[in-house]
Amino acid sequence: MSNKISPSPSGTLRAILERGEFVVAPGVFEMLGAKIADRMDFPALYMTGYGVSTSHLGQPDAGIAGFTDMQGRARTIAHGVSKPLIADADTGFGGLINIRHTVRGYEEAGVQAIQLEDQESPKKCGHTPNRRVVALPDAVRRIEVAVDSRRSRDFLIVARTDARTGLGLDEAIKRGKAFAKAGADIIFVESPESEDEFQRIGQELAGCGAWLIANMVPTGRSPEISAARLKELGFALAIWPGVLMQSACAAMENALAYLAANGTTAGSPVPSYDMKKLHELVGFEDVWAFEKRWAQ
């Protein structure tokens, strides 16, 4: 039997990164936004834990959503889109054996990259205060278990550190290097606080053997930097987890305010789909084709 590793399919996230294509991944958390994003010119999509927790449970991103909530939503999205899906898995939802279960569950669900954090449990959103991280050896062991648990090299491990806010950038970079040594495919230093910090991350983690990902959260702790500039700084991927949440909430609030004030949606300045376009987005054309062929 040959021990040669088969090449990655050309459409996998690994293959995209190995070709040197910069990945801009918008945050998705439900199927309408995921379907719209899937039709656009993005190499991959990112399932945001913040979005899943708030949309599915109506709760803040504070470790309340569990494995079943997140893996179930990841499965729905992964099977409903054509693009590779990167998915947030918080701290792995428990101890080391839970991390193994989470990695295998996300991989089985069709996710192509899983994001695991070094925060204490329950975790918090990376752009909120009072986050605490576990000791470095414990954080490294999480990544080692995740790498050992996956079944395919095309299932990528994203190792995130939240050490910058509480322990400083030096510690965050140290952890990034340790995570890469432990086998992580992608290193995620959360919430740098200036472009200079992003530049330093790119310089000091260059050559670590892993790709670098940046988290763009406008009005969060980090400045928003363009994809072109991030690529210059040494990053290979960037996520915009709030792009749909922020714009959708504003649009919903404005649409409802107009209806409440006017008793009608006629004349509303808020852009909206007509029913024909909505039917097409959600897949009614397939239903109608099925009924035409099979309905008596």
TrEMBL record:
<dbReference type="InterPro" id="IPR015813">
    <property type="entry name" value="Pyrv/PenolPyrv_kinase-like_dom"/>
</dbReference>
<dbReference type="Pfam" id="PF13714">
    <property type="entry name" value="PEP_mutase"/>
</dbReference>
<dbReference type="InterPro" id="IPR039556">
    <property type="entry name" value="ICL/PEPM"/>
</dbReference>
<dbReference type="InterPro" id="IPR040442">
    <property type="entry name" value="Pyrv_kinase-like_dom_sf"/>
</dbReference>
<keyword id="KW-0456">Lyase</keyword>
<dbReference type="GO" id="GO:0016829">
    <property type="term" value="F:lyase activity"/>
</dbReference>
<protein>
    <submittedName>
        <fullName>Isocitrate lyase/PEP mutase family protein</fullName>
    </submittedName>
</protein>
